[in-house]
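Dear colleague,

Thank you for sharing your sequence with our group. We've completed the structure prediction you requested, and as agreed, I am returning the results in plain text so they can be pasted directly into your records. Please verify that the sequence below matches your submission; if there's any discrepancy, let me know and we will rerun it promptly.
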Amino acid sequence: MKKIGFIGVGNMGSAIIRGMAVRDDVEIHGTDLNAEVIATLENEYGLKAQPDAKALAEAVDYVVLAVKPQHASKVLESISPALGPDKCLVSICAGLTVDTLREMSGQECPVVRIMPNTPAMVGEGVFAICLDDEQLSDESKSFIPEIFDGLGLVKVLSEKQFDAFTAVIGSGPAYVFYFMEALMEAGVNLGLTRQESTEMVEALFSGSSRLAKESDHHVSQLREMVSSPAGTTIKALLHLDRTATRGNIVDAVTESYLRSIELGSK
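Please find the predicted structure tokens below.
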């Protein structure tokens, strides 16, 4: 049985723990300044609480770093004596490269970099996993993607693809929520109550996403199915085309991509 320890059990750390707790081949440990959350995870999901980060690193095989990026250096410095070739550091800290993580942790421990997105909090996340570190064992390269598989879609990507993943998928939920919010406001503007508009737009996105996933048709074909000649939908879509909405979306994602590169170079 593999022992996995979480340094930090905030929203994302807790979501991953809840998803992994259903497995019978892992033993989950955790430490956090929030004793109440640790107690809840201990009672509901069998988490084994550790008094601090160093004790956790000593007790487990895989150390999951789930703290804010600005706190990573201090945490890794404190646990570096407990890290070595027999351990594996798994980081979900945004913006910290494999080389940076290796340097912060003392260069002794193989590193896996993971980037999730927020739907992981409901078991529908998308995870980019970087297995570029040459020190990683074949066992770790197969085990890490496997244990995250139950939390959503897992994609093994090279680190050079992480900025693109960040721009499209990491930031992606905000784009979706932005469009949802606009549709909700449009509904209210046209006379629907806010509750009616909210409920129906939420169902619209849920159903449309499921249809896109389960249909044999490409999303372009699905869009065409709704766009009857001289109908209401084509009128709306032509307005979006005239105002370059598609191009603006591509440009917005590119801005996110460039900012990700900028942050990673600091």
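Summary note from our side: The radius of gyration is 22 Å.

Kind regards,
the structure core
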